[in-house]
Automatic annotation (TrEMBL):
Catalytic activity: L-lysyl-tRNA(Lys) + a 1,2-diacyl-sn-glycero-3-phospho-(1'-sn-glycerol) = a 1,2-diacyl-sn-glycero-3-phospho-1'-(3'-O-L-lysyl)-sn-glycerol + tRNA(Lys)
Native source species: Paratissierella segnis
Keywords, ordered alphabetically: Antibiotic resistance, Cell membrane, Lipid metabolism, Membrane, Transferase, Transmembrane, Transmembrane helix
Gene from which this protein is expressed: mprF
Entry membrane topology: Multi-pass membrane protein
EC number: 2.3.2.3
Stated role: Catalyzes the transfer of a lysyl group from L-lysyl-tRNA(Lys) to membrane-bound phosphatidylglycerol (PG), which produces lysylphosphatidylglycerol (LPG), a major component of the bacterial membrane with a positive net charge. LPG synthesis contributes to bacterial virulence as it is involved in the resistance mechanism against cationic antimicrobial peptides (CAMP) produces by the host's immune system (defensins, cathelicidins) and by the competing microorganisms.
GO CC terms: plasma membrane
Domain (Phosphatidylglycerol lysyltransferase C-terminal): residue spans on this chain: 542-833
Pfam families in the record: LPG_synthase_C, LPG_synthase_TM
InterPro entries attached to this UniProt entry: Acyl_CoA_acyltransferase, L-PG_synthase/AglD, LPG_synthase_C, PG_lysyltransferase
Recorded GO MF terms: phosphatidylglycerol lysyltransferase activity
Compartment(s) where it occurs, according to its Swiss-Prot or TrEMBL record: Cell membrane
Stated name of the protein: Phosphatidylglycerol lysyltransferase
Segments traversing the membrane: 12-30, 50-75, 87-112, 132-152, 164-186, 206-227, 239-260, 280-306, 332-356, 376-393, 405-422, 457-478, 498-518
Amino acid sequence: MFKSFLKKHGMSILKLLFFIAMAIFIVWSIKQEVESIDFVHTIMILRRLPIVNTMLILLLGILGVSSITYYDFLITKYFNLGLRPSTIFNVSFIASAINNISGLGGLTGASIRTVFFKKGDNKADYLDYNLFLIPATSVGLSAFSILSLILYKYTKPIINKYNYLFLILLGFIIYFFIYFFIDIIFYRFKKTEIELFDAKRFTLKIKLLLASIIHCIILFILFFMIIRQFNSNINPLPCLVVFTLASITGIVSMLPGGLGSFDFVVLAGLQYYGIATENILAALILYRVFYYIVPLVLSIIFTLAIQSQRNESNIKVFDVEKLKGFISRTSGLTNFLLSILVFVSGLILLFSALVPGITERIKFAAKLLSFPILQWSRQLSILIGVFLISISREIKMKVKRGYKVTWWLLLSGALFTFIKGFDYEEAIFLTIVLILLRLSKDSFYRRSLPFDWFWTLISSFVVLIGVTIYLKLSHVILLDFLRLHNFKTIFSNGFSNFKISGIFTYGSLIIYIIVMELTKERIKDDKRYEEIDVDRVDRFLRENTGSYLSHLIYLKDKHLYWAQSQKVLIAFEARHNVIIALGDPIGNEEYFDEALDEFHNFVDEYGYKLVFYEVGEKFLPLYHEHGYYFFKLGEMALVDLEDFDIKSPKSRDFRNVLSRFKRDGYYFQMIDGKDLDDAMYGELFSISEEWLKGRNEMGFSLGFMDRFYLEQSPIGLIRNEETKEVIAFASLMPKCDNRTYSLDLMRFKEDIPKNTMEFLILNLIIYLKEQNFKIFNLGMAPLSNVGVAQNAHFKERMAHLVYKYGKEVYSFGGLRSYKEKFNPTWESRYLAYDDFTLFPSSLLETSMLIHTKK
């Protein structure tokens, strides 16, 4: 149990532990610095910032993100993509704004660029594109790192206190020189030929280096301008060093926006140079708002602008329906941005409830409303903020119910945040998000998402810690504010009872999650998610050709999807967040294309990912057209019965086996499964239990011991001529094409003569040949001929190593060698999966499904 859990969640746990370790380290490092902060004073500093200075900082923040677009102008020109400058700017701005908050070393921004730039007129190697782009985004900081080393007298005090910063600084200095050879190293590793020196590529790298330095200069000017608002006498050189150390630490942490790591270094560094802690905190808030949040909001507008330029160039007036159409066409990216805005809306509500409002507004609100109303408005703002953060994933995944719930949460959040202190700024922001959400209504189509116990428990634990920290911080800030402004009435009314507030918030969230889960639409309740009707399946297989695996439907451990007005049948089963289909669809092949679309849409309505297990080569082009990726599972051994000749010289060993068993008093008997009586089934069941030796039965793609299942096909027996005792048996699976049978269950007693199974298989081959069947399928040889090609993908090469060296776990090579003696034709079988990132979990979920008898 524990091993299977570890196999499934091992990588996720490692990732989680990495981020938890990083977060703990940052919290531990920053704890002493934060304890001395006067948060109320920090908020008052932000409130007093002049509007002219705010506008200048706003422009610098937008310019900072805009400067990143120059990378794309240079690279698209190099590849001659034929894109319009406006499109390049819009896409690059969107990608950069999102990448700023996502972390992951630039991969998010690279993915967005690839999606949009693929629509250009000319094709280019987008891997090569990203090999220019991603390394260039950090090389400017490498140049700044060299400068920081030159300015060592300003760097030394900080790295003496935090030694690990020197290692990071040294790493970025080394990276400056590696930058020019990253693409060469990559292609050499991939064993792809590339010129060691290409003048055009080198020139582009130099231009990208200069662009990166310019971008870093703009960001430093923004950073320095913000710091200058709170200390006009600060020297720019120590600011440059602090900015560099903070930025490279943020990148190394891989946390979204360098959250925590960047802030800690800025806090520690600027404190050393005499800036008050409250001023540093206010500066960090401004930097994040104007470099991260504001460009993100603008990126949504640019998303709509891209489509309007391409498809609606003749629009002269605002048209809501056309705007909704633009959003629908860009729903993938738009919903991702909306989910971020919903998440940010939740943070804004929490932040708004955390920090005191303007004193005059609170006093005015206190005159109009009772203190209990103000208190409950604040509490409900916190609760709605937590709910919005929780539901933002459903907005990204386009869940219809998530849209409806979020609509009411945003409306209620805007109302309560306004009531608690006339905070109209937050209310306006939430209203804007509400309008954007309403315009995106048509993009929501999913009924629900699969439930994930693991991540629900982890998320609940993280939220518990977050709520505890939040309420503790809220307690400190609010009490200071109340004492400062003599709001004694609020004190006396118990407004400081934060434990009750925390229990109420967390308890409400748990109830909300439970209610949402219990009341959601489930795929198993959909009438298209059908149980097996044996009579209906019988009629279908009589009228249509089946597959090598179609007989496994009679195990009744699967569900069926009838597509294209019952012309196509797909057998499948759900496991966690994956729907696993068994083999190719069966039925009328003319309708397979539409059937795949229909089935995918059905599965997608409930947020599941789709996997087809053991598909054949014949339909690979069809799966490819539908966007599936492939992994070779192994090869199927097919014996050509017409070519098999037991009397040929090559079959001498086979004849010897047949003769020896006949001489030793054993014979073969074929029976119809429908003739099984209680005594015979009991004998076969006893053999099966002896063969299993306490192991669990498998299922899904493998037959298991079940009376109804065995009754649906012929069974071959090996009997002792003297005692009539059965020592081994094998069941067969018809393909329903009047020419093919497959080997299914093969079970035998512990003490049997050598080569008993070979004797059984030979008799099955002879019997089927006499009955004029053409093909006998001996089953799969897992991982056979997988990853043997020199240029095979990494995952196939790893599978080949398992095949070659995994003898202690399973004799992959031995199974192929055993089947090879029957001189079969080998036919490849594949795993087809619709999400590239889903491969590891697809393999694990399928394996778990097979190893779990229903």
